[in-house]
Amino acid sequence: FPVTIDDEDYGEMQAYLTLRPEAGKVMINIYENQGSANRVYEFWKLNLRKLNWDFLIALPLAFQVLKKQNSPELVAAMFGEFGNLIGQFHLGIRWLNLEMAIVSCNLSLEIYTRESFPEDWATAQHNLANAYLDRIWGSEVENKEIAISIYKKSLEIRSRDFCPQDWAMTQNSLANTPLIVTGKQIGRAHV
User: Fold this and answer.
1) How far is C-alpha 49 from the geometric centre of its chain's CA atoms?
2) What is the pLDDT of residue 88?
3) Can you tell me the distance from the alpha carbon of 17 to that of 22, in angstroms, rounded to the nearest whole number?
4) 77, 107 in Cβ contact below 8 A?
5) Got the DSSP string for the chain?
6) How far apart are CA 107 and CA 2, in angstroms?
7) Chain segment 24-72, per-residue pLDDT in tens
């Protein structure tokens, strides 16, 4: 879903988001509650019907508009945290929550590059891998393989020496990722 816009399209996008302001409100809620899962989830419970397909489609547009109006790092942080939290949110439509997590993590990675923000990049990679691990759409085998590959990318920064707690968390996630071949679990990913 990466979207690039020019100034000509910007006005149209703002108009669209004025009609579908939910994405902006959700990101502001995350910012105001500093990512507190309980407070954010309470807000989402009250607005559950708005976390729908239209919301998913609006995420890239909201990202572009918010990025033009705010610090890109702040927008990346909001979308990264949204991706993390919605991936763990068990109310609503589970497959849709996971797709929103994937889109949001990928959007945050447009700003959180490995070179500029290595720790944030590694965290976003880890959260993206978590979403792929649980993903319902697509091939289960492919989703697991993608998750394993992304966890390994995260470990390029999350080293034992540099980030021991994050390294351990990612190693644990990777070690507990089942390998699936033709519907049969055949073991765990090699760490």
Assistant:
1) 20
2) 95
3) 8
4) no
5) ------HHHHHHHHHHHHHSTHHHHHHHHHHHTTT-HHHHHHHHHHTGGGSSHHHHHHHHHHHHHHHHHS-HHHHHHHHHHHHHHHHH--SS-HHHHHHHHHHHHHHHHHHS-TTT-HHHHHHHHHHHHHHHHH--SS-HHHHHHHHHHHHHHHHTTS-TTT-HHHHHHHHHHHHT-EEEETTEEEEE---
6) 7
7) 788 888 888 886 899 999 999 998 998 999 899 989 988 988 898 889 9
* Integer CA distances (angstroms), 112 to 14, 74, 158, in order: 24, 11, 15
Higher pLDDT, 17 or 52: 52
Cα separation of 124 and 112, whole Å? 8
Residue 117 near residue 73, CB atoms below 8 Å: yes
Q: Return the structure tokens found at 85.
A: 């939290």
164-174 exposure pattern, b = at least 16 Cβ within 10 A, e = fewer: eebbeebbebb
Both tokens of 35, joined, read 């990512």
Please identify which residue in the block is written with the tokens 């993590």. Answer: 105
Q: Do the beta carbons of residue 53 and residue 99 sit within 8 Å? A: no
How do residues 65-115 score in pLDDT, each as one tens digit?
889 888 999 999 999 999 999 999 999 999 999 999 999 999 999 999 999
Enumerate residues 6+ apart whose C-beta is below 8 A from 67.
75, 111
